[in-house]
Each structure stands twice: as structure tokens, then as C-alpha cells.
Amino acid sequence: MKLKSLLFSLVAASLVSGAAFAQAPIVIKFSHVVANDTPKGKAAERFKELAEKATKGRVKVELYPNSTLYKDKEELEALQLGAVQMLAPSLAKFGPLGVKEFEVFDLPYIFPSKDVLYAVTEGPIGKDLMKKLESKGITGLAFWDNGFKVMSSNKPMHLPADMKGQKLRIQSSKVLDAQMRALSANPQVLAFSEVYQALQTGVVDGTENPPSNLYTQKMHEVQKHVTVTNHGYLGYAVIVNKKFWDGLPADVRAQLDEAMKSSTKYANAIAQQENDNSLEAVKKSGKTTVYNLTDKEKAEWRKALLPVQKDMEGRIGKDLIANVNKEAVKLGFK
Ligand code: LMR
């Protein structure tokens, strides 16, 4: 009788803990620094929706947009420590991690079209870059597009010489630093969350970003001029803490992989349109003028900034830059 009741309570206890286990979802904290209403914000929301559906609730994705949890530098540290599981930092932010090759994406005029970009991110170059993250305790899952950057400032900008002496906010990339110095400007690294205030208070004169970031952070309200330079690119790597990822049940990992594939397609499909809409909204706001360069002016910007590609060979790797340029040639450019 005693044995029977012991067995009974053991079975009951295991049922209770089994039920509790089945109910406790795996939580993915996904932190990022931009607004929800951006290509990255929307793709993160899509991932949450697909991941929770595919895993039938075994995984819960908690989104923390707009630097509500961490700023740029802190979020990378938090990922490595396991305080968050997923991020999508811009490719310009991997240098401080010691993976400077990612700064290839920051080189002025490196991508003559989005097709060349996709050939890089979806091909062997993208795979090799993601592999470099493994030794940092990070697994790279996907590249998400955003767009080409515009310049903003309180002064009109038609020619590279107009940037001379201006204090310009940049992301933490040595290539972006070199790019601004090539324009005889003074680059200042600031976290994304600090840009609006720095522009408003005059700590910096201007900055660069795709229109989607400019508009959703209301930077156009504190900048008198925007010039559509399209001089450089900004996109993302979606990354996870490697230990967390490797420790997931294999079926869950496969379902999340599928959800990530679909979200990536979505991110890349909406990016251009989102940026076009944002640029239109900036124009409509009437708060800032939007200037389109003439062909002659475009040529001047290229002349001023193209040498940065060569100057940065030592940092990024001559072969890597050459391989990216080869993708452009394969697609009929240059
Ligand atoms: C920036 O800091 O300007 C961007 O990287 C923000 C972002 O994540 O798009």
C-alpha cells in the first residue's frame, strides 16, 4: 500500500512538472535600436509572428525596439553575455567586436545596385563573413536590407566641399570615419539613440542614414537640409548567441530557421519601398529641403569618396574588397 501511494505521488509529481515544462516557453529577447515602423522593425515583428506560429508557442519572441533595452554597444555585449538572445545590428557595428571585415559594407559606392548587394549577402562572401562571428560566440542567421544613405545637415550640401569642417555623427566604423575625413568633415561616433538630441542641441551638425531611419527618428525636424547622395549602404546581420542557438531542440531550431528565411525575404522585399515612402514623407513635412544631385555633382562626390576603398584595403582586406567588386562586374557594372 505504501509503495503504491509512493508510486502514485511520483507519477503525479512528474505529470505536474511535465505540464509546467510544456508550458514554459523558450524566450528569445530580440533587442534593436530603430522604430517598429522601419524595415528592420517590421521584419522583427514578422519574425516574432512566424516563429511563435511555427513552434506552436514553444518559443516566445520578446521585441525590444528603439533602444528600450540596450543601446548599440551594450546590445552586442548583452548578446555575448546571454542577457538577450537575438539582435540585428547594422553591419557598421561589428568592427568593435573585432570583425572588421564587416566594414566592407560601409565603403562608399561599393554596391552599384541592390542586385550586387544580394549577390554578396546571399552568396559565398556573406557566408564567409558570418563564419567569422562564430569565434565571438555569435551565430549569424541572415542579412536584412535597409538602404542607401542620404546626408543631412543644417547647411545645403551640393558638393563634397560643402561638408568641410562639419561635425557629422557616424556609427562606430573606421570606414565611416575615413569616409567623413575624405570630405574634410569631423566624424563623431554616437549611439543611434543619441542622434536626435545631438542634432537638436547642435552637438553635431549633421549625419547620414537611410531615409527610413531619418524619418522615423524625426531627424528631419532638426535638420534643414537632406541631400540624396546614396553614397553608402546600411543593412543588418541578424545574429544570435551561439550557445543559446546550439542548445535549442533541433526541431525548434529548424522551425526558427524557416521563420528567419521568410522574414528575410519580407525584409528585403519591403526595404526599398519603405525608404522611398520615408523620403516622400520627409519632403511632404516641409521641415527640410530634399536635394537631388545633378550628374555632375554626383561625379564630384564619387571622386572625393572612391579613394576610401583603396585606403581601407589594409583594414578590411584587399581580396575581400576585390571579391565584392567582382560581383559588380559579373552583374555588368564597371
Ligand atoms: C545607426 O546607428 O545609424 C543605424 O545603425 C541604426 C540602425 O540600426 O539602423
TrEMBL record:
GO CC terms of this entry: outer membrane-bounded periplasmic space
Pfam families: DctP (PF03480)
Keywords: Signal, Transport
GO BP, sorted A to Z: C4-dicarboxylate transport; transmembrane transport
InterPro entries with a match to the protein in the record: DctP_fam (IPR018389), TRAP_DctP (IPR004682), TRAP_DctP_sf (IPR038404)
Zinc-finger as UniProt keyword: no
Family (UniProt): Belongs to the bacterial solute-binding protein 7 family.
The protein, known as: C4-dicarboxylate-binding protein DctP
